[in-house]
Design brief:
By secondary structure, this protein is mainly alpha-helical. The chain is built from 23 helices and 6 strands. Helix 1 packs parallel to helix 5, helix 6 (about 115-125) runs parallel beside helix 17 (about 325-345) and helix 9 (about 170-185) runs antiparallel to helix 15.
């Protein structure tokens, strides 16, 4: 007993160490992190969600981050919240798997999640997916408690957490629908009971939107916009899927035999909870590797089940005995782990990029007042400087980072071709209007960034033409300082 306790605590400790290690510098803020942290930072300054700042998701994750960012507005704190959510997920994986299979399988599942390079990388980022990961896993914990005991208390808790998972990110509905089907098999009254309690959190959330008068903006940004959003080219979607499959390949290899044979009822349920949401995501308009993070607990549990059933004890071997198959599996896991380790441990290049932006942010903070706004497409610079960004004068887009998301990632040939968007994404005129209206004290331009060069030089292609903002910026601002390739302009 003491030995097993030591092993599980060791897995949790090492897993947390890997997630906290070099947390600030391992990677610059991603676009999604920038959206989340700038939104939370704006909320701490009294701005209303959706109306004053762009938020593409419901508010559960942002409300979790709120007290931490209010007290300690730093990327280290923002990312630490995600790491703590991942710790909760690890503990839940252990107890779920222990109830479904055995303590040995639970230890394996927890270790697989703790050492998964895919999970480690995204657990270190301040993104919404870590909230949906935790709440979906918590939902599974209460659901399996109910499914095995038929106790309505657990059905009640499952419903409540399902609602919270849904207002973390809408994609939780893919897993919730699978659970609803399983509950319906126990009776339609049970299903109605579950749906009633699952509706509580969303109803409270929507009521609060009406109370603060931001329901229209919420609908535009998180419902309407998501339905009309552009589709990624098939080649890019396949590339993202390929990265995910390669990243999680050891787990998939161990889990697939369980998915195919499904010797126990629990195998079938977990397979459905993984495969159905996975396929729905694959056929969506947009696909990125982090979308699958919420499915990682199911995958790790299935992989642990496969490892225990087909590799460790194929002929009734004791858990403590190690055979040749186990050694091969361990070798594969170690090689894969070290191959991907640089992604979540960081590199000299990534650390330099973060230090450079922090240096720029420190200088901006030294020449501005707390209530001064700045303009930049690099939200991490603004966040490091603890200054708000002037948003474009756009109905939908309240955050400049989407220039980089779309123009930098997709190419300028797509600009102006999306039906339903205000001005075809953000127009340069909308940025000019915002600069003229709010007159930010500082404008930051990155010399070699695609989005900044488009804004500076303008767009001139058959699909879309607009003059750049270089003349306007040079007329009203002067170049105060250049740090590396980042130019800091101050209003005259």
């Amino acid at each position: 007993m003491l030995k097993k306790t030591f092993l599980i605590l060791s897995a949790l400790t090492v897993g947390m160490f890997l997630r906290f290690y070099n947390l600030l510098y391992f990677h610059h803020m991603t676009a999604d992190e920038s959206v989340c942290t700038q939104a939370v930072f704006a909320l701490t300054k009294g701005y209303l969600p959706y109306r004053d700042v762009f938020i593409a998701h419901p508010l559960a994750y942002f409300l979790i981050e709120y007290p931490f960012i209010r007290l300690f507005p730093s990327i280290l704190m923002a990312r630490s919240v995600s790491v703590l959510l991942s710790l909760g997920t690890m503990l839940l994986i252990f107890y779920i798997t222990k109830d479904l299979y055995s303590e040995n399988v639970a230890m394996l599942a927890t270790a697989l999640f703790a050492f998964s390079s895919y999970a480690i990388y995204y657990n270190k980022l301040a993104i919404v997916e870590n909230a949906i990961l935790f709440f979906t896993t918590l939902l599974l914990y209460f659901f399996f408690k109910y499914y095995r005991s038929d106790c309505e208390r657990y059905l009640f808790l499952s419903g409540l957490i399902a609602g919270v998972a849904f207002i973390s990110k809408y994609t939780a509905v893919f897993a919730i629908v699978v659970l609803m089907f399983l509950i319906a098999m126990k009776g339609l009254k049970k299903l109605a009971f579950f749906v009633a309690f699952a509706s509580i959190a969303p109803l409270v959330f929507i009521s609060s939107l009406f109370l603060f008068g931001v329901h229209y903006y919420w609908y535009i940004q998180t419902v309407s916009l998501q339905l009309i959003r552009f589709s990624l080219p098939l080649a890019l979607k396949m590339s993202e899927l390929g990265v995910y499959l390669a990243w999680t390949s050891p787990l998939l290899i161990m889990a697939i035999p369980v998915m195919i044979h499904r010797r126990a009822k629990e195998d079938t349920i977990l397979t459905a909870l993984y495969v159905i949401p996975f396929l729905v995501m694959c056929f969506g308009k947009v696909l990125f590797t982090h979308y699958f993070l919420m499915l990682t607990p199911m995958l790790c549990t299935l992989a642990a089940r496969g490892l225990d059933q087909y590799f460790i004890r194929p002929k009734g071997l004791e858990f403590r005995k190690i055979n040749a198959k186990v050694l091969v599996v361990l070798a594969i896991l170690l090689v894969h782990f070290f191959f991907y380790s640089s992604i979540f441990l960081g590199s000299a290049q990534s650390e330099f990029a973060v230090h450079a932006k922090m240096e720029v942010a420190d200088y901006i903070r030294s020449i501005t007042e707390e209530n001064d706004k700045i303009w930049t497409t690099e939200a991490d610079i603004a966040f490091f400087a603890q200054r708000l960004i002037v948003a474009p004068n756009s109905t939908i887009w309240k955050y400049q980072g989407f220039y980089e998301d779309v123009w930098g990632y997709m190419g300028t040939s797509y600009v102006g071709q999306f039906a339903g968007y205000s001005g075809g994404l953000i127009s340069l005129e909308e940025i000019r209007q915002a600069l003229e209206c709010e007159k930010p004290k500082v404008v930051v331009v990155m010399e070699y960034k695609v989005a900044d060069m488009i804004i500076w030089n303008g767009i001139n292609n058959p699909a879309y033409k607009e003059e750049g903002l270089a003349d306007y910026i040079l007329t009203h601002y002067y170049l105060e300082r250049e740090i590396y390739d980042i130019q800091i302009y101050v209003r005259k």
